[in-house]
Amino acid sequence: MNYNVWGGTLNRTASAIIFIAIGFTLTGCGTKTTNEETLNQENKPTTTDIPVKEDPRPLLVAFGDSLTEGAGVDPAQNYPSKLQARIDAAGYSYRVVNAGVSGETSSQGLSRAEAIAAQNPAIVIVEFGANDGLRGVPVETTRQNLEGIIVRLQSAGAKVILAGMEVPPNYGPQYTRAFREIFSSLSKERQIPLIPFFLQGVGGHPELNQDDGIHPTAEGYDIVVETVWKVLEPLL
């Protein structure tokens, strides 16, 4: 029996092997070996590490987990860096800050939301949920955490964009459907723009992903940026 996984087709055995690997990768850091990183965040950058400097440009924060941080690629090749280049090339004046921390769930993102809001960002792109799904976190818990993040950022005056995420179908149709609906329902209720699937056109395409099968390559991030750009540009 075949499964359609993020745009690709895998048989049952391959699907199981890949998603076991994915579980280690996203909950770790997506670096060369899964044993090198744990969920211990002591050595991870935090939002309070965002450099304070005299820059008149409005702040755009890319807020998320390893998919935002850019695990496994050169810092100049992650999506926030490429998004900065895209914004500059289009003639807009924003300073993009990468506030991605590998391994984080929506709960950990919620714990950082206050620090993000304290930076007075103009726009925040919220990308959480992949680690929740891989751990089987109850859908309602993930939803509440994401809503808490959105509400806190909106209360600080930030425009929020929500990046949708999906889980593999082998988690069962009920969980898969309910997980997907978290993002669309929050987008409607909080009246914020939605990126339907952050990894659209990248997930399930081996040539656009690193060896772990989940984190995009530099080329994959080019596509991610264009997916984000379609939703972001109207707000700039």
Enumerate how many helices there are, as a single number.
8
Largest sheet, strands/sense/barrel: 5 strands, parallel
Shape: globular
Oligomer classification: single chain
Q: Could you tell me the number of beta strands?
A: 7
CATH H-level superfamily title: SGNH hydrolase
What is the level-2 CATH architecture name?
3-Layer(aba) Sandwich
Structure keywords:
single chain, 236 residues, alpha/beta, Rossmann fold, 5-stranded parallel sheet, two-stranded antiparallel ribbon, 42% helix, globular
Please explain how this structure is put together.
There is one protein chain. This protein has one domain (2-235): SGNH hydrolase (Rossmann fold, 3-Layer(aba) Sandwich), CATH 3.40.50.1110. Mean pLDDT is 84; it is low at 1-5 and 7-48. It is built from eight helices and seven strands; from the N terminus they run E-E-H-E-H-H-E-H-E-H-H-E-H-E-H. The longest helix is centred in the last third of the chain and has 18 residues, at 173-190. It has a five-stranded parallel beta sheet, with helices on both faces. Strands 1-2 form a two-stranded antiparallel sheet. The chain has helices at 12-27, 66-69, 79-89, 106-117, 130-135, 139-155, 173-190, 218-232, and strands at 2-5, 8-11, 59-64, 95-100, 123-127, 159-163, 194-195. Helices cover 42% and strands 14% of the residues.
